Amino acid sequence: MANIIEMPKLSDTMTGGTVVSWLKKEGDVVESGDILAEIETDKATQELECFDEGTILKIYIQAGGKAPCGQPLCAVGEKGEEAPKVESPTAAPDAEKAKPAPAESEKPKEEKVSPPKPEPKASKAPSATSSGRRTFASPLARKIAEDKGIPLEAIKGSGPSGRIVQADVIAAAQAGVKGIPAAAVPLEEKLTPVSTIREVIARRLLESKTQVPHFYLEKEVNAAPLLKTRVALNEKLKKLGQSIKLTVNDYILKASAEALRTVPAMNTSWEGENIRQHGAVHLSFGVALEDGLVTPVIRDAEKKDLVTISREARELIDKARAKKLTPEEMSGSTFTVTNLGMYGVNSFYGIINPPNAGILSVGGTFKKPIVDENDNIVIGHRMSIGISGDHRVVDGAVGALFLQALAENLENPAIMLV
Amino acid sequence: MALITYRDAINQAMAEELARDSDVFIMGEEVAQYKGAYKVTRGLLEKFGPERIIDAPISEAGFCGLGVGAAMMGLRPVVEFMFWSFCYVAFDQVINNAANIRYMSGGLINIPIVFRGPGNGGTNVGATHSHTPENFVANTPGLKVVCPSTPYDAKGLLKSAIRDNDPVFVMENTLLYGNQGEVPEDDYVIPLGVAEVKKEGSDISLVAHGRCAILCLEAAEVLAAEHGINAEVVDLRSIRPLDEDTILKSVKKTNRAVLVEENKPFCGVGAQICSIIQEKVFDYLDAPIKRVSSIDAPQIYSMPLEQQQIPNVERIVDTVLEIA
Questions:
Q1: Which DSSP letter does residue B89 get?
Q2: Partner of A22 at 20 to 30 A CA spacing, among A202, A234, A378, B177?
Q3: Is A278 a catalytic site residue?
Q4: What's the number of CA atoms in the CB half-sphere (13 Å) around residue B155?
Q5: Residues in chain A with pLDDT < 50?
Q6: Hey, are the CB atoms on B286 and A141 less than 8 Å from each other?
Q7: What is the pTM of this model?
């Protein structure tokens, strides 16, 4: 009797996943503990472990195919046994479109169907117009157009069936289309299939922005002491032979954890009938990846010192970039910090990461004229911090108190060392 | 330089080689007393005697085999086919044996033989007398084949063929025998495998061999006079070995090519050249490669229809106009 191996639910938010690649093929003998495939879930690529022994009779979802949790991925049974028939899920059109399972003698063509496909080189003269129709051009015309950096779409063909020939390219070049430098490749219209991670971002943030009543507060803080302390501490760490280097973000994480301890009303969640105030600060922070955003969590951040937070943050960022974060490392947050300072953003407001009651948004530090305590205009180092709050749980005053506590921590970094 | 006919140029080539090398002899149907069906061997019997100018019975398989055997023993036979169409009865000797003995003897035995004669249509002699088998021959490793278009080329190529140590097939054309051209008095040879640009041009390459090269030169004049198209004419002269460099250089210059031959189109010489061009200079092509060949049917006996079946100037011009 064959066992069906289904798309596992690998995290609490996972509703489906993508088979990135199969590490075993039909006909392979497998045993418990073998890794069958790599599955891309909400936010990470994880291994699909085998808990059965036998032969892979059939692979239902080919590499590149999507399947909802619970959908059969493959069947394992006795060699020669017939694989049970399963219906293709309507929720996974890609899986339906996937090629029929290859015969036993064929190797699964994993590379050919695994997403993401490499982009065609942008410098190549495109062979298709934005409408998807092919532009006909002679090989010579194509080559000359590419050398001159003239998009074929900009040239009218005079050859048979409108084929662009050498004379057309030369005429276009003389008519002024020649001004286009080789680098000025025309904008390309293209369709990119929505990745699992993008799908999750879209769904969760749409839920948040439509179901959570956001309010926004912003406060400017004096970042000069923070910058000064950071330089001094890093120098000290270096002298001590420590490999660690503290970032502005590490201070913000530590300062946020401290501020949440001061204003625990901000460290809460709306649960319908109850409002839960969390007994620990599980601090999540955004890490931008090429194809989306992940939010790993530093647990019990309020109990950790600056250096520990810095180390953990660094580890989580590295894992996130390698797509090796486990679902546990990405769930259970009580508050989220997002920082776009390194991109030169002045200030912004994040969308709340449910079930958090708020999200902190941190802008960059800029030099600007300020009025000091003696009414003199001096150069200040200013950083803008903002909060988006869930008005069901917290009110403006709570948000304000939190920002105040946070500002105090940031402006007096020595407090955090206590 | 003397102005002589294509026929006399071939005659001179044989006479000069007979005089130069006593191993050379001529054999074929009516080559001696009758001076050849097309009078190409005129005067040779008188000059070199019946031991070296040998009339053979109507038995191509027999005298071709005799020729291959003589070549194996070190002589240099020049075997004439009255028509190349008649080589088919001797295929085992000319294609199978001549081509393979050097290889199968491990290089110990050369076959320095020349098979020559006219191979063309357009003379209203019917389907079995109008073959142009240069593509058959060129398809066979071990054989060389040349198709001269002018008296100068005919003499120089035939002399090279006689001196070559491998079987060389010289395919002439009865419609060219009377053509006149300048031929030097002194000894000269044209190496096998070297094409000639018979006319320089910039707009399109006409690649041809044999009489079709002459037709291309005429077509080039029409194209220049009536259509302002400056065509280049590449005369292959030698089909195998093939001068790829000259073909590719010309196509790189003009970016267009029309391949002209009297062969039937299927697996013709043009098919091979087309493959080489697209593979090696694809990015230089500004238009698809076109071919002009005989219309794909057994040679038509009706004279007016046959004139349409084989390539002619009008068809070459029309084909050029499709892409230039």
A1: G
A2: A202
A3: no
A4: 24
A5: 90-130
A6: yes
A7: 0.54
